[in-house]
Amino acid sequence: MKNNRICELFKIEKPIIQAGMIWCSGWELASAVSNAGGLGLIGSGSMYPDILRDQIQKCKKATSKPFGVNVPLLYPNIDDHIKIIIEEGVKIVFTSAGNPKTWTNHLKQHGITVVHVVSAVKFALKCQEAGVDAIVAEGFEAGGHNGREETTTLVLIPQIRKAVTLPLIAAGGIGLGSQMAAAFALGAEAVQVGSRFVATPESSAHQNFKDAVINTKEGDTVLTLKQLTPVRLIKNKFFNEVEKAEKEGASAEELEKLLGRGRAKKGMFEGDMNEGELEIGQVSATIDTIIPAAQIVDEIMNDFNTTIEKLKSLAF
């Protein structure tokens, strides 16, 4: 794509980034997206340090093209993760869920391109101050952990575009090329796609979770656990328990006890559709097939170009 700052920054052919989702984004998915011309990300938030190193090494063997690692800044072993990323020569890091000033300078000193994920203008301004190379603006529609402001992608992108000059990646509710075109019209220069890539053979998600995603309908996901860290979940037994507790006025401590440990792993990785935490975006309602990641990249780009041509014909 001509004159695209994101493609130039990452040295990729297509401005499509695969989100680094916990329990779903291992080396197989990341390398498949990178080989298709986009940017694949390994989701390190669910990995012990030795697992992350193994995933990076496997990804390097599976692709000669750029790929990155997503690092949630709240991860308890983040020092080990950063050390491994540097030692293994990863050149792109997406950070999220924390202050971008914490690690940006350190990473950039080691020649690493740094991108931070935000859900509001105030955080985008902090990213610019911290010296990140690009920003992901993630709207309320997104899966996984989300912003408390509940600002939709359609509203968030133009606000952040107006506030900062950095290269801008749109995320949240994007799984089609037409949605990508809409994001570009609002000022984005690339899109980050999560939920659509969960439903692929290369995704490390359990088959039960993939099947749940393609069977999800409008209204089947809800943003919840706002007292802790807001997360969008598919409605199931666990969600119903959380909803009941919140309606009864449960404290943050009580919700943490209900959440316990390993809920996300139990649901998305081990396939427990009743007791597990099932994180996915609203766009899942448009997903009804499990297809290879490369096919998704091609379909999004073709749909994007078709949409752009159609819009040209509608100009007054």
Question: Can you offer a commentary on this structure?
Answer:
The protein has 316 residues and is α/β, with parallel strands linked by helices. The chain has two domains: 230 residues, TIM Barrel; 70 residues, no CATH class. The protein is built from 14 helices and eleven strands. The longest helix has 22 residues. It is globular.
Can you tag this structure with a few keywords?
single chain, 316 residues, alpha/beta, TIM Barrel, 3-stranded antiparallel β-sheet, 14 helices
Main β sheet profile: 8 strands, parallel
Shape, per Cα inertia axes: globular
CATH homologous superfamily caption of the largest domain: Aldolase class I
Count of distinct structural domains: 2
Strand order across the largest sheet? 1-9-8-6-5-4-3-2
| Helix share bin | 40-55%
Output the CATH class name of the largest domain.
Alpha Beta
Unreliable sequence segments: none
Strand percentage: 5-15%
Tell me, rounded to a whole number, the average pLDDT: 94
Q: How far from one another are the termini?
A: 26 Å
SSE layout and pairings?
Blueprint: H1 5-10, E1 16-18, H2 27-35, E2 40-43, H3 49-62, E3 67-72, H4 78-87, E4 92-96, H5 104-109, E5 113-118, H6 121-130, E6 134-138, E7 144-145, H7 153-163, E8 168-171, H8 177-185, E9 190-193, H9 195-198, H10 207-214, E10 221-224, E11 231-234, H11 237-247, H12 252-259, H13 263-269, H14 293-314
Parallel strand pairs: 1-9, 2-3, 3-4, 4-5, 5-6, 6-8, 8-9
Antiparallel strand pairs: 7-11, 10-11
Helix pairs in contact: 2-3, 3-4, 8-14, 11-12
